[in-house]
Design goal:
The longest helix has 25 residues. The chain is 49% helix and 16% strand. The protein folds into 3 domains: 168 residues, no CATH class; 41 residues, no CATH class; 132 residues, Glutaredoxin (3-Layer(aba) Sandwich). By secondary structure, the chain is α+β, with helices and mostly antiparallel strands. The chain contains 13 helices and 10 strands. It is flat, with a radius of gyration of 26 Å.
Length: 385
């Protein structure tokens, strides 16, 4: 029994450590997933606390995993793990049964699991942890109290510190489709073998005080302007296989409308600064101006992509400002702001605003193009056409 308990402890402990570390790589990703649950439940007041909850949960998972491996205070730790896994099982069960949450974020974006896979994983862990609770008296710590507390404290500090680091400097491992080396246009293509849902659209119109329903294939023969549109509802008549492009809804809007294709048509290096908002622009404006000046010296266009167009235009009146959805920017740029060094639609470099020196280095290493009086102005003219 002791050998079996040791194997279970290591399995459960390593899984909790892995889960905590992989999410600690991107605490914002977990906080966005929490917001998704809170939005579904109508708990909007908790949205402001999701990042703190995310950081705390990741730390607790790793510390609990280490504690169960070393056997430190197993009566308390095993009960804590039981409460934690019951909570996780509820979340994955809700995601599975409701269908409102597509992925539960158990292993972050690096290892996405379906709700069914996550639920089955949690059921297995629940059974193993129940056994640990029952047999906690048989488990003896493998290290002394001081060594255990020191190790747990070290893990606490390391995981917490790592998360604060990535919040300022981007994740250690970028598991998102906007990672360095990816081509954004390729990521927007439907994957091979994808089968979309087949949807039947039913329209509701009002005429002479009565409501009429009909689909695209059965419009009434006397349909004219006397029919007043009410609404439309869709019914999935045949489910697809769920495959979707890695990037959805990415678009860059300029004064002339959608400029995505025009931006990606640039064959030489250019720089996009993605900033969801301008709330803390004073902290990174100086660094950005240095990047812009260095880029201008080599005729490299620089554009600001933001969801706060008017504020950006007021702060940076001489720069190209492109609008983009805030949710898209949150996905692409985990740090506000983030520099994207681009060529065509390919991401050559991706750096946090605090690491703008790395962007300067890429500019310095680039081959100077023939002198152009105002390369940014030429790009602006192209985008406005």
């Amino acid at each position: 029994m002791k050998t079996l308990l040791t194997i279970i402890r290591w399995f459960v402990g390593l899984l909790f450590i892995f889960s905590g570390l992989i999410k600690a790589n991107d605490p914002l990703g977990l906080s966005y997933k929490m917001q998704e649950f809170f939005e579904v439940w109508g708990w909007h007041a908790l949205n402001d606390y999701t990042l703190a909850l995310s950081i705390g949960m990741n730390v607790l998972e790793v510390v609990a995993g280490v504690a169960v491996i070393v056997g430190w205070r197993m009566k308390v730790v095993s009960w804590f793990l039981l409460v934690l896994i019951l909570f996780f099982t509820f979340l994955t069960g809700y995601a599975l049964l409701s269908g409102k949450i597509k992925t539960c974020g158990c292993f972050g974006d690096c290892l996405p699991l379906t709700p069914l896979q996550s639920f089955l994983k949690d059921i297995l862990l629940l059974l193993l942890i129940v056994l640990l609770v029952i047999k906690a008296k048989l488990i003896r710590p493998s290290t002394g109290t001081f060594a255990s507390v020191f190790l747990l404290g070290l893990c606490f500090a390391a995981v917490a510190g790592a998360q604060f680091y990535v919040l300022k400097h981007l994740p250690f491992i970028d598991c998102l489709p906007y990672k360095m080396g990816n081509n954004i246009q390729d990521q927007m293509k439907m994957p091979e073998g994808a089968i979309p849902d087949s949807v039947d659209m039913t329209f509701r119109y009002k005429k002479d005080g009565k409501i009429f329903e009909f689909n695209q294939a059965h419009f009434p023969e006397d349909f004219d302007s006397t029919y007043e549109y009410v609404d439309r509802y869709d019914k999935v008549v045949r489910k697809g296989n769920g495959l979707q492009p890695a990037i959805i809804d990415f678009s860059l809007q300029g004064t002339a409308g959608d400029t995505t294709a025009a931006v990606f048509a640039q064959e030489e290096m250019y720089i996009l600064l993605l900033a969801k908002d301008m709330d803390h622009a004073a902290g990174w404006k100086t660094g950005f101006e240095r990047v812009a000046a260095s880029a201008a010296a080599k005729s490299i266009p620089v554009m600001i992509v933001t969801a706060a167009h008017d504020k950006a235009a007021a702060l940076f009146p001489t720069h190209i400002i492109l609008s983009c959805d805030a949710t898209v920017i949150k996905t692409a740029a985990r740090v506000n702001p983030t520099y994207f060094v681009m060529q065509g639609a390919t991401i050559l470099g991706k750096f946090a605003g605090s690491d703008y020196s790395k962007t300067l280095q890429m500019i310095a290493d680039s081959i100077a193009k023939p002198a152009v009086t105002d390369s940014t102005g030429q790009v602006r003219d192209t985008l406005m056409k």
